[in-house]
Amino acid sequence: MNTTEFLTITLAICPDKEAIVFEGKRCTFAQLGERTNRLGNALMGLRMKKGESVATLMVNCNQCIETYFATAKIGGVYVPLNFRAKGNELTYMLNTAEATAVFVGERYLELVESIKPNLTTVKHVISVDKPHQGMLFYNDLLKSGSPDDIFTEIGDDDMTILMYTAGTTGFPKGVMLTHKSFTVYVLDNVTPPDTETIEKNILTVPLYHVAGIQAMMAAVYGGRTLVIERQFEPTEWMGLVQTEKVGRAMMVPTMLKQLIDHPKFKDYNLSSLKVITYGAAPMPLEVIKKAINVFPKVSFINAFGQTETASTITSLSPEDHVITGATEAEREKKLKRLGSIGKPMSDVEMRIIDENGKDLPPGEVGEIVARGPRVMTGYWKDEEKTKKTIDKDGWVHTGDTGYRDEDGYFFLAGRATDLIIRGGENISPEEVENVIFAHPKIDDVAVIGVPDEEWGEVPKAICVPKEGCADCTPEEIMEYCRQNLASYKRPRSVIFVKELPRSSVGKVLKRVLRDEYGEKK
């Protein structure tokens, strides 16, 4: 089964159900099906072929979903780009993905115009929100395309999404995800659509993130209405939940914290909420405890995964969020498990291994590895990194360290890599370091992640100024980063030292830096 059949099945069962609510506009599954057909046929009219890449650069909107299904129907590869990326980052991703077309939201038109001369494969730039000189216009494509169904031979193992994720090197890695990467999970975990059930799912996780894609696919197959927010904003979110009587939400921990700490939280009626799934970054224990308290009738689910595993591989169930027990010891045990990532999904195998690849017993910390039918097939055109991540037996080395308890619950203990995760966004320290190295007053630099109550982690830069540059200030470095990095990648603090600790072969000892400077200050 391929992902286009999610829409086909729901369209056949409940065509008149609302599929999308977005900024006052409503679209049924029948209308969504027609729009994706029109767009897919229009793309074929531009001579786009099976296997070609179609990129998007826009905030969450109905066009993201339409573009995905239109691309999938013609057998293309969907490449959702992080809308926070800078021009040089976008150029790298578009060129390495060999994108033929790119759909661009209004706020990114000037940015794309500025990099067009550097794009080597892009033939068509499509303005999504309004006509723009020198570009095709989204609505014109819809009008020109036929509403007829599209028939393309698509295999379960065909790549459907190429999703870029930060690595420990300075360049994003293209994760190859097949139709099977999503269909296996959705078919095992989502109830098929019916004509009676009305369920609404608010979508705020960005659709360039695998968690957003998974939530979108689950909603389409389940016949749920997607209530879309361009970007998360707490008061707008609460207003949408109240007005639309939303029952489901997917959130990263940062969003949940901003919501429950908001001064107007009690002004809204959020009683329609039945399920909140959270993930994409570690959840602080105090945040989830408070959330359970303020949402006593909501079922919470912790979904842990990576882009490389097509999102969720472990789940902490709603029952695990209910802290009850006959004895104090039982309650303490359940409370501790709130800090876990739960148990593996039914189609996933997971192990904790030592540096020699041998299994470790419960309680001992090692690397988490996972295997299953929906993990990535590898990194796009990077055999070396693929071999480092997926071993000969198909185990994906997650880069996370952790342990499992005697009952099979997995706990995170840190990361084997130096990757920083801020509010669900991956940040490569080396990328930030490369930018700061280019500053004329900096001689050496290392970037580490430090704990942050709101974002989980934020980057911190430890800099060695050049001789004679004692006048260099933290504000100067942070402003330089603001001009040269996506906003979420910028260091939130900068300190100066005389030298960085290094090993005998010259490698910066980040463990030492974390021990000494790992606090937020």
List the helices and strands and how they pair.
Blueprint: H1 4-13, E1 18-22, E2 25-28, H2 29-45, E3 53-57, H3 62-73, E4 77-80, H4 87-97, E5 99-104, H5 109-115, E6 124-127, E7 136-137, H6 138-144, E8 159-165, E9 173-178, H7 179-189, E10 200-203, H8 210-222, E11 225-228, H9 234-244, E12 248-251, H10 253-260, E13 275-279, H11 285-294, E14 299-306, E15 311-316, H12 328-337, E16 343-344, E17 349-353, E18 366-371, E19 378-379, H13 383-389, E20 396-404, E21 410-415, E22 420-422, E23 425-427, H14 429-437, E24 442-452, E25 456-465, H15 474-484, E26 493-496, H16 510-517
Parallel strand pairs: 1-11, 3-4, 3-5, 5-6, 6-7, 10-11, 10-12, 12-13, 13-14, 25-26
Antiparallel strand pairs: 1-2, 8-9, 9-19, 14-15, 15-16, 17-18, 18-20, 20-21, 22-23, 24-25
Description of the structure:
With 521 residues, the chain is an alpha/beta fold. Among the domains are: 4-231, ANL, N-terminal domain (Rossmann fold); 420-517, GMP Synthetase, Chain A, domain 3. The chain is built from 16 helices and 26 strands. Strand 14 (299-306) and strand 15 (311-316) form a beta hairpin. The protein is globular, with a radius of gyration of 23 Å. It starts with a helix and ends with a helix. The relative contact order is 0.09. The mean pLDDT is 93.
